Amino acid sequence: MRRLFNNFTHNPKNDILSGLTVALALVPEAVAFAFVAGIDPLVGLYGAFMMGLVTALFGGRPGMISGATGAMAVVMVHLIQKGNEVGASLAVPDADLGVKWLFITLLFVGMIQILAGLLKLGKFVRLIPHPVMMGFVNGLAIVIFLSQLGMFKESIGAEKVWLHGSELWVMIGLVALTMGIMFGLPKLTKKIPAALTAIVIVAAIAILGKDSLFGSTNISTVGSFIRDGGGTGLKGNLPSFQSGIFNIVETLEGHWGLIISTAFLLAAVGLIESLMTLNLVDEITETRGSGNRECVAQGGANILNGLFGGMGGCAMIGQSIINVNSGGRGRLSGTVAAIALLCFILFASPLIEQIPIAALVGVMFMVVIGTFAWSSFRILRKIPVADAAVLILVSAITVWQDLAIAVIAGVIVSTLVFAWKNATMIRARKRMKEDGTKVYEIWGPLFFGSTQTFNSKFDPKNDPDKVEIDFIESRVSDHSGMEALRSIANKYLDLGKQVKFTHLSPECKTLLLKANPKFNDIIETSIDDPRYHVVTDLMDAEV
């Protein structure tokens, strides 16, 4: 409790100011992702508020921001559309059945994520290779950049067309001014967040100089963005308990497979994106968060979203970077961002709706510049070809598909490359003892990829009657390796020859004896036997 209190009071000024900056940047993002999912913008805003508040208070990474995200919105689309189709076919049509199905699905999403945290699956994010991480941030930067280009379009009827003429130049000018302030202000002072200062200055210029500076030129604002997308505005009430979702369970008959499969996919996408964001923020702040605690907090937040009518979501990488770069390193920053977002909805919607989109686009462009790993261009020719290929592959798949698929693909490719390289590393040095025993000194890992090479090292028919296989410089890593040991031992025993295994780890001995107690006669135990501690039961660091 003391640590939690200290985290709130460590640097309140920076946390509060950075939280306000993030809240302003959250508005168009949450609204845009709600449009992607095909639901009311307020559902996206409520989701951002509840996700942000719960994870800020109880999550595993102070300073990390959560809310409605595009990766999860894309997964929701089919579920919501199917629900709306079923709703339209009912005797009493229900136009909102799709979003009610979403709320029910979020309850399962939350339970799956909490279970992942309780099973301590969050720690496995530490196993993600560095080329995958670098490809992830590069692809992310490109995705954020491309998503902001949509803000340079306007709605004409049902179509989106690029801005042109004075409207385009005003948009570019305000974006450039925002980026200029964010670039130059930190060189003068770091006492106030550059992003918040830039938003306030550009908003003031746009609002006060609307007639005198820009004449009849239309300036896209948060309000016009919401209305162009089909919304009615930012004004709303407090989230309310969705008791109605328990009355429509009968409409799910025959569709539970869709609900459960979507829940698992949403949970996986949310956890991967959140844990990758946690890893990235860890590197920026040079501190360590708790992946397992974050899983539980994300799950609790999604359950709350399902019960109180929010869109659900996960960690938001762009907003998290804005927060930490603005000085928000404690839990207070995320809490302020969530509460400020709710206050915008309840009390300040007329003012927030006047903020020009250009100011928020400029902030996100600076996030892109700060996120992209520019050093990757310099090191591509200096790292192994396989690692460079993984880096490029992950970046491309992130842009082409989504972050979760890209990370999974990158980890799989890296794992296969690692396995292939290690499969060729096993060696067997041979020597003879004075008593005529032939010794095979094994060097390198023995696992599924190297068993064939391992077997080829031996010549049971031509070897002497006594053979010793020494594993002091080797390690038996999996079941395939143990089967290789069993196979080679049986070959010698079937020929009536003696074979001894020396310097096996206790774990390997236990498994071999469990498979066949007769191995006790050929395994020699020594004080020099290696001990491998593969996993640890230590809890993640509390933060």
Briefly summarize what is shown.
The chain has 543 residues and is of the alpha/beta class. The protein contains 21 helices and 9 strands.
Topology:
Elements lengths: L1 H8 L2 H26 L3 H18 L7 E2 L2 H20 L7 H22 L11 H20 L3 E4 L2 E4 L2 H24 L5 H15 L13 H7 L27 H30 L5 H18 L5 E2 L1 H9 L5 H16 L2 H4 L4 H15 L3 H5 L5 H16 L2 H21 L3 E6 L5 E9 L4 H5 L10 E11 L2 H16 L3 E5 L3 H10 L7 E2 L19
Parallel strand pairs: 6-7, 7-8, 8-9
Antiparallel strand pairs: 1-4, 2-3, 5-6
Helix pairs in contact: 2-3, 2-4, 2-12, 2-13, 3-11, 3-13, 4-5, 4-10, 5-10, 5-11, 6-15, 6-17, 6-18, 7-8, 7-15, 8-15, 10-11, 10-12, 10-18, 17-18
Structural features, described:
With 543 residues, the protein is of the alpha/beta class. The protein folds into 2 domains: 2-141 and 154-160 and 217-357 and 368-373, no CATH class; 424-524, STAS domain (Transcription Regulator spoIIAA, 2-Layer Sandwich), CATH 3.30.750. The protein has 21 helices and 9 strands. The protein has helices at residues 2-9, 12-37, 41-58, 70-89, 97-118, 130-149, 165-188, 194-208, 222-228, 256-285, 291-308, 317-325, 331-346, 349-352, 357-371, 375-379, 385-400, 403-423, 451-455, 479-494, 506-515, and strands spanning 66-67, 153-156, 159-162, 314-315, 427-432, 438-446, 466-476, 498-502, 523-524. Helix 2 (12-37) packs antiparallel against helix 3, helix 4 packs across helix 5 (97-118) and helix 17 (385-400) packs antiparallel against helix 18.
